[in-house]
Amino acid sequence: MNRRSLLAKTLFGIAAPRLAFDWIRSANAQQNTWRHGVALFGELKYPVDFKHFEYVNTNAPKGGTVRQIALGTFDNFNIVVSGVRGVLAVGIGFIYDRLSVPSLDEAGSEYGLLAEAISCAANYSSASYRLRADAKWNDGVPVTSEDVIFSFEAFRKYSPQQSAYYRHVVSVEKTGDREVSFTFDERGNRELPQIVGGLVVLPKHWWEDISANGNKRDIGATTLEPPLGSGPYRIKEFSPGRNIVYERVKNYWGRAVNVNIGANNFDELRYVYVRDTAVALEAFKAGVVDWRIENTAKNWATAYDFPAVGENRVLIEEFPIRNVGTMQAFAFNIRREKFQDARARLAFNYAFDFEKMNKLIFYGQYKRIASYFENTELAATGLPTGKELQLLESVRDKVPREVFEKPYSNPVNDSPGAWHAHLLKAAQLLKSAGYDVFRRKLINSKTDEPYVVELLSDDTSFERVFLFYRQSLERLGMTVTVRIIDSAQYENRLRARDFDIIVATREETLSPGNEQSGYWGSQAADQFGSLNLIGIKDPAIDAMINEIIFANSRADLEAATRALDRILLWNHYVVPQWTYGKVRTARWDRFGHPGSMPTYGAAAFPNLWWWDNKRSAKAG
């Protein structure tokens, strides 16, 4: 969500021939249509003079405090180096504004926040943003084009993930008093204007100044000095690794902007850090915190029977998830030889007895995931037809034949006989991949090296899942280690790609685009800090990502996304886990929320909620 580069350079710093961008400059010069928002496909729902989003409560009162739990620890407030250095404090995004923000009742539309207007070239080769004259930092200094350029350059330089995300931006420049223009290296990439619109804008004057301790601030380093922002909240107080409190900025410049009406209602947002989920649950039951999202099926089934629930002082509520498709899975690090054969990876799926686990551990609450875009219209179903089939035919020689022959499905253990058959199938797959059992241990047939696997997580709730899964893997002769480590160690091991199998979750929006390159693209596989944790390098996947990025219609986007889904699934890069389809929440009855929640907002907490004095008095 950034953009920039005053020099016309590629991601790798190689100077681009100036004539190569003549057509881009020409398109830029012809821009003259300014709009209040931008839609990926079709038209915007809200007109230029809209007063607020339909789903908000315009009369929501301001005030009160909400206390939430954060897991792990933190040692950094610098959002630029998040994912590369340190552990970022939860909630830091509340202190910043972006050029544009999405609506929660449209798929793929954004409206100006810091920017009052947006102008895109007809061929999507460039985009310009005009800043609001009254946009200010919380020290009263105006937000400027220079701030936007500074922010883009900082993210591009210090954040590998963002740098990859913005790799198609070849230049960013000030083109007016409050105007910034981005030039792209290709035409037809409809998402690029929204990508740069999502840039977190940082205060250049603050970062280039001297800190309270007399040292020059460094945008490329971690810091625990509370940063200056332009957003609705600022850091009020904190204790590293223990808690952080944000206070509402009473004179926030954007409080009357249409996209903010009815939002940012709490006076304080408090986060209390705990080390594990068990402590988090007890803190909620004791009233130390007010709100909780429950991710553990056992807790949801058994832990919410304490007196406050029966007295309706604690409310249990589920909110449907309509805005994302989630793939949660055991993810392999295929950089390691033992996971490079797809047959070996598939063996892990046959060894996973989801049905028994769902019954014994999850109280039958879950269903198995069968798509990287689960629960959305983007999920591949049946056999490919039409445009999707046409796209897959173009890479037929590069994808598993099953892509064309049968719909993807996971093994189903619906009987004792099925389970034993699947274990046998797993053993056969491992043998075909070059592994034999010798003295009850699985070994590499060529090297005699034992097949050793580590299941790694920073979430204690996954320990019982790992232990359950380990039994099946050990029956195949594997040597399996279960390791739960703290969040800082875990982040460092992910960055170093020092893992065998982790639990990875990837949430896909209804409008997938350039981020897919960072998730699955070949270029990202070896890039430090990228989200291609698995290490995928596949030309067919690269081709489908390209089709998604350059889709000319919603129908083309859906076809390309389903094709990508099939290729990912049939390569068995992960063992899909489970999904619920709703956000499970528990809260002390102190808050109100809109009567009709936004279609794509799920719980939308705390953004659209507010403190309710009458309810608070009842909850105690």
Summarize this entry quickly:
This protein is an alpha+beta fold and 620 residues long. The protein is 27% helix and 21% strand. The protein is globular, with a radius of gyration of 25 Å.
Describe this structure in words.
With 620 residues, this protein is an alpha+beta fold. Among the domains are: 279-317 and 584-620, no CATH class; 324-336 and 363-411 and 452-579, Dipeptide-binding Protein, domain 3 (Roll). Helices cover 27% and strands 21% of the residues. Helix 9 (342-350) runs antiparallel to helix 13 (416-432), helix 11 (386-393) packs across helix 19 and helix 18 runs antiparallel to helix 19. The two termini are 42 Å apart.
Helix fraction bin: 25-40%
How many strand units?
25
Query: Biggest sheet, in brief?
Result: 5 strands, mixed
Strand order of the largest sheet: 19-18-20-14-21
Which architecture of the domain at 324-336 and 363-411 and 452-579 would the CATH scheme give at its second level? Answer: Roll
**Helix/strand class:** alpha+beta
Overall pLDDT score: 92
Q: How would you sum up the global shape?
A: globular
Number of helices: 20
Radius of gyration: 25 Å
| Uncertain residue ranges | 1-31
Corresponding CATH superfamily of the domain at 324-336 and 363-411 and 452-579:
Dipeptide-binding Protein, Domain 3
Beta-strand share of residues? 15-25%
CATH class of the domain at 324-336 and 363-411 and 452-579: Alpha Beta
Our measurement of the CA-to-CA distance between the termini, rounded to an integer number of angstroms, reads 42 Å
CATH topology of the domain at 324-336 and 363-411 and 452-579: Dipeptide-binding Protein, domain 3
